[in-house]
Queue: 2 jobs
Job 1
Amino acid sequence: MSVHTISLLSFIIVISFISKSSANSENSFYYFCDQNNDRGNYTANSNYATNLNNLLSTLTSNTKINYGFYNSSYGQNTDKVNAIGLCRGDIKPEECRGCLDQAKANLTQLCPNRKEAIGWYQDEKCMLRYSDRYIFGHNETGPAYYMWNMNNATNADKFNGVVNNLLDTLRSKAALGDSRRKYGEGNAVVPSNKTVYGVVQCTPDLSEEECDSCLVESIKVLPSCCNDKIGARIVRPSCYLRYETSFLFYDPSAQSPSPSPSLTPSSPKGDAPSPSPSLLPPPAPAPKNNDIPSPLSLPPSSSLTPSSEGT
């Protein structure tokens, strides 16, 4: 699979696995289509297309969900579509639904006729994925990408140690979450008395062990991709981690969810209107933290290489 690089202002965009990026700071959208067409295509007037439109248009319709996780299916047999919508744990319900509404219109437009696709929108405030295969409760580490800040930390060894300890603490917290939210956020003081802020998250349909495993693999990658960097993130379908120094990128006032969790994917019933297509927002200046994206290749027990990872 080929890798293409495009420059936009000072921000580098990497396109791979038929993935493309819109480097628009708060409106950035990183997405992956099924390049090898393993899942096949659907046609515009097919049952699969109808089911996909119905599923995406109703995915966030349950306004009682205030924990940012939507998992649902629509259709029967080979025309059945499965979808997951996940918002970062600090994102408020209304903002979460708005993010996913924008993501679903963009993803179907940017991956036309593909049965499987995944995208992260608004600086990873939300993730949307869908497929004709069963995607619930599986630890999936690809496709994935990582990004890093161009600036190096002072007293790097101590800095890296503080970051690793912080992420390990948050990893344990996230893995112990329930079927509504597996999320951890926190901060620590690094050399030069600066604060490093961190977030880790798993899709809450994972078990404690699967969540822990996904995050452990991501933390292990940091020395290979982002060593000594004052900010970095690793983004996968099943888990996410990010840290930034002197840069609070999440809302620490977010409240814990209150409704009882739903342990199985819901299935919307009846017809629903198809989402209206919308274009990606226009380019904007590069993010303040100067993060650079790169595709991620993480086969088990192997070294990191700059190529995209499949599912």
Note: The helical segments are 47-58, 93-110, 156-175, 208-225.
Job 2
Amino acid sequence: MRANCSSSSACPANSSEEELPVGLEVYGNLELVFTVVSAVMIGLLMFSLGCSVEIRRLWSHIRRPWGIAVGLLCQFGLMPLTAYLLVISFSLKPVQAMAILIMGCCPGGTISNIFTYWVDGDMDLSISMTTCSTVVAGMMPLCLYLYTLSWNLEQNLTIPYQNIGITLVCLTIPVAFGVYVNYRWPKQSKIILKVGAIVGGVLLLVVAVAGVVLAKGSWNSDIIPLTISFIFPLIGHVTGFLLALLTHQSWQSCRTISLETGAQNIQMCITMLHLSFTAEQLVQMLSFPLAYGLFQLLDGFLIVAAYKMYKRTLKIKHRIKNPALRVEARFKKKSTSPKETSAFLEVNEEAALTPGPSGPMDLHRAVMPTGQISCAK
């Protein structure tokens, strides 16, 4: 593949005087506002999600980073490879192929942290993976060089290191404040976490839709990039889950790694495209990251809905099999916290999905309340 770029327009500095298309003109005028609002929103969101992080569990992930290592392998191994295979399979134009490959090489996005919270995933692992993938985003030039080595590109790709640094600051500082609030005021942090997750999800959806509407002039009628933007995040979710499962990660970590793999940093991809390509090329390229952002939101909401249905079905099955639980639940409904209920469901998920030599008596003890175990003895 070869990008049709003349030497006079290969660099953004050389093409600063050319006239922008109508769709990109609107996008360019509001790009600064969009970036500032996104940064503030991500900061507030990460502060609220940081209130769910426990220092002890976070340190355990850092001390034994097996889950983080699997996540990084998915992020910078599976996703770039998947992007390259999709480009080869669909025989795309060079410009469109570069947009897809750049998206596959980007680090994880913040939206995965919200979905991880909604599916009762490992928030400590999720935030650690997002932060580490942003730090290791320096691998982007290596990935792009290896996969474009046979394409003979005539222009150099510009890596937005400033954007990577801003994203890293927006992640680490608010999360650190959230961890401190959770350590000092654990009760108040639970309220902040619930409110922040709901408000953050709505804001992310609004910003994503607003970005698409503002750049509607950049959409084109080519259906192939839109098709790839639909199946790409799905492949990321499935392959991430399977690799986590093959490496014997917990059920909770499998959900987390799956969501982290399929969610990419859309803003970083768009920034890199603006810095590296001309206005005419951007008209063919911007539709892919925008569509990818919408489809990864849609996939995330579908995964959350499926998990909530599974969680409810699991709870009903256990109540049917154990009538004593329904009777006791009526008396202890007010005293049982949501955290205890989530832990109960997690234990039953592990018992249902993890093979082991445990017999019926052990399963009965795991499900029965403490009072009934003591009576049985």
Note: The CA atoms of residues 104 and 117 lie 24 Å apart.
